[in-house]
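Researcher: Structure prediction, please.
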Amino acid sequence: MATRKVGFLHNRSKASFQMHYAAFVSRLHDFVGEDEVPIIERWAGDEPKETLEQHAKDLVKQNVDVIVAAGGPQTVIAVQGATTKIPIVFTPVTHPATFVGKNLDHPNANLTGIAGMTSELDVTRLQLLGELLGGKAATIGVLSNKNRPHFEQHLKTLDAEASKQHMKLVPMNVENLEQIEQAFKSFANNKPDGYLVTADSLFNDLRRNVVGFAKGVPAIYQWREFAEAGGLMSFGANIIEAYRRVGEYVGHILDGATPGELPVSFPDKFELVINLRVAQADGPAIPASLLTRAEFVHTRLRSRMRSHR
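Model: Predicted structure follows.
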């Protein structure tokens, strides 16, 4: 029997996603046993999309049995462009119907995977930020990756929500660390009341830098890793769990399942995480309405609570 091989392609750096990758490998080993299936890894880092596309083509040449497309829609697009035959399992992506068709229970072609509810929750994050700020008219700096598919339409959606909340959005669209740093310097000129860092693996990859640039201004992020890195607040699914689920999907495919037999999976839990140290040091008073829903809440924060009528 020929050795089965798994290709793993991520559009960011392994250093920032080591725990995520380890969760995938651990769950895959639950299905196939350790050392039975070699995993060929490719990490694009912050290289241009051509590097991502070349990695995808290389994995196809390696005759892998399945490819994991991790890090968001850019990776899925690159792998789709490289093969229409090898099964692809993605994690986590926004709007999965864009890739697999409307029937998410029986995906089309050679793709299936995990829907991250990533960009879809940016509107909710904006609402939570408004709740944190007490519903006042506010100026919000919005950080977006300009290489993310459909980001301009996404900004229009956010702007429509901001109008309902009497907010003014100041968008900055970036693609690398230097531009992110410059964006926060530009934000400062508008004296923002808060920051919304929109969903994208670029910001997760550089989360410690992003959190550092935002220091002193209330900000909300996508994954709990941002709050753990020193950000004030995050809201989203558990990304580690998403990578575990990918390990399951790959295991099923190696056992003979096809992508069409594996429904696209959606998260069933969303986490509101507040970093208490940041909130106590230089954050705003946290409304009780958020505290009662958040994780990592501690009684010593009570003196800073306020109630809303």
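Model: Residues 297-309 have pLDDT under 50 and may be disordered.
Researcher: Thanks, that helps.
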